[in-house]
Amino acid sequence: MSRSLHHLFPPYPLADQRSCGGELFEAAQRVLESGHYILGNETKAFEQEFARYLGIGHVTGTANGTDGIELMLRALDIRAGSAVLLPAHAPSAVAAGVRRAGAEPVFADIDQNTFTLCPESVAEVLKQQRPGRVRAVLAVHLYGHPAELGALLELARNHGAMLLEDASQSHAALWQGRMTGTLGRASVFSFYPTKNLAALGDAGAVATDDAGLAERFSRLRQYGWKERHISGEDGINSRLDELQAAMLRVKLARLDAATLRRRQLAAVYDARLGGLLGIATPVVRPGCEHVYHQYVVRCTNRDRLLTPLKAAGVPVAVHYPVPLHRQPAFAQDRHFPCSEEAVREVLSLPLHPHLSDEAVHGVCDVIEFTLS
Fold it and tell me: Is this structure's pTM higher than 0.70?
């Protein structure tokens, strides 16, 4: 096949902004005319609206998701001398947030089907740690699929640790009918421009049902202030910008429709690619609802697909190319076979709410032709 498909793939952030019509400009104008640009009414309104959407008591906006991880751990007093268990196959930003809080990341392997924390591996790693060292298990809902929260929650409790969630890629995903980000002691969200719920720059949030913990989040994100100009503890500057909060309010109203469209396009991929030799489509665990932040397939020979897809102008990507325990900043002498196999095989095919069915069929045509 030689025809170019490039014209079928509008870049996601730009297409997402254009789909909102004039509402983003109206929201920006509202902020500009308010004269209040830091922690004003827009941030407060978004925090309340997102909390209601999730079905959780409190949401606290932050400057980005990595800051959110740091603030979440610091608010829970998980700092130097403590460890946080997380999947070896995950964005490096997760481990970076743990390190910034002063804690040490400890890795476990992933489930080979869903790319989320494997409870059996978590149990094995926890047994190897000295009592009390691992203070939290951080479940990353990678690619938009919920982790196995029931088993992870039980493991964490039995070990005297708490379950935390990184829902940065799973806005609106469901586990047993509940939104991801609402089942752990606390959770973090990112609203980076390519996320399912996306700002126009960096933005994030932490969420919890604990009013006291939420109050501490609010203090720590602003210099540790309990009253203005008086730092009661060592905080940082990580506030959700008013402009970004206003943008997110517009996007939040569209999130359900965008999620439905992602699932429709994923179903097209599933129907066309399911059963093809050499490629495996995403698995959805019973009781879970995937939101397809990425549509990730496994390829026994990834390079065989990468070359023709790129030549056809298809924007494919590898999320993520090196497991965390093999990266210089977080290197650990461990072997996690599922994570190490995944990084050799995963391939993200284009999927966002503003793609046409024609675009997805075009991708499938290239793959079918290549594998035939």
Answer: yes
| Buried/exposed 200-220: b ≥16 CB within 10 Å, e otherwise | bebbbbbbbbeeebbebbbbb
The answer to whether the beta carbons of residues 355 and 16 sit under 8 Å apart is no
pLDDT tens-place string over residues 176-206: 999 999 999 999 999 999 999 999 999 999 9
271-294 confidence digits (pLDDT tens): 999 999 999 999 999 999 999 999
Cα 39 to Cα 213, 251, 252: the distances in Å are: 19, 19, 19
The C-alpha atoms of residue 197 and residue 194 are separated, in whole angstroms, by: 8
Please state, as a whole number, how many other Cβ atoms lie within 10 Å of the Cβ of residue 361.
Answer: 14
Give the CA-trace dihedral at 210, 212, 214, 218, to 10 degrees: 180
Domain residue limits, the chain: 6-15+254-371, 20-252
The verdict on domain 6-15+254-371 having CATH code 3.90.1150.10 is yes
SS3 for 114-154 is CCCECHHHHHHHHHHCCCCCEEEEEEECHHHCCCCHHHHHH
User: Looking at the domain that runs over 20-252, which CATH code has it been given?
Assistant: 3.40.640.10
* Residue 187 CB burial class (10 angstroms; 0-12, 13-18, ≥19): buried
> Which residues lie closer than 8 Å to 91 by C-beta, 6 or more apart?
140, 168, 319, 320
The yes-or-no answer to whether 6-15+254-371 and 20-252 have a common fold is: no
What residues contact 197, with CB distance under 8 A and at least 6 apart? 171, 172, 189, 191, 248, 251, 252, 255
Look-up: residue for tokens 């509940």?
178
pLDDT tens per residue, range 306-319: 999 999 999 999 99
The pairing of strands 162-166 and 104-108 is unpaired
List the strands of the sheet with 288-289, edge to edge.
Answer: 178-179, 174-175, 288-289
